[in-house]
Design a protein that fits this description.
The protein is α+β, with helices and mostly antiparallel strands. The chain has helices at about 30-40, 80-85, 150-180; strands spanning about 5, 15-20, 25, 40-50, 55-70, 75-80, 95-105, 105-115, 135-150.
Length: about 180
Amino acid sequence: MLNSVVTPNRGHPVVYYFASGAAVWGQAITPSIAHLVQTQRRIAIDYARIAPGIVFQVVSGQVMTPHVIDQSTFRFHADAATLRQAMSSPEATPDAVLRCEVGDACVLKLWGRVAKDEQAPPWDPQSHDGAAMTVPIIFTVTFWEIAPSSEAQIRNLTREVAEKDRLIRELTGKVALAMCSQ
């Protein structure tokens, strides 16, 4: 049986179909989801830029120090240079996707919108090293899902193949030793 999930997107909605092993998903930050996000030291984020002259552009970066504000909002610290590149204007609120590896070959993805934290002090480029500067952002969750990680599946297949190759070499060596003793 196939299940479908419509994910938020600017323009046309994106529909994902799941066969057996369907993903767990939701729209509010539950205590379990908050815990999974807050245990991550650094979280991968992809900012989506859509503007005149840009069909679709993704700017990848990392966010850190997650803090839950309410049932649909996180506060993170993002790399200032990456955020500047992702935001076409200071008032822009780009779409973004967060990805957290949560164990058991699963990944938590959170879709939402990013905005600068208005309560944060203004950024002074003269007072900080630009390469190491982070700025607080607000991430409003629209949708989240926990699904099997395709990268983890590939790693598992590679590990299984390597383990079988090692076992074959070991058995071949034992057969060769057994034949030599006769």
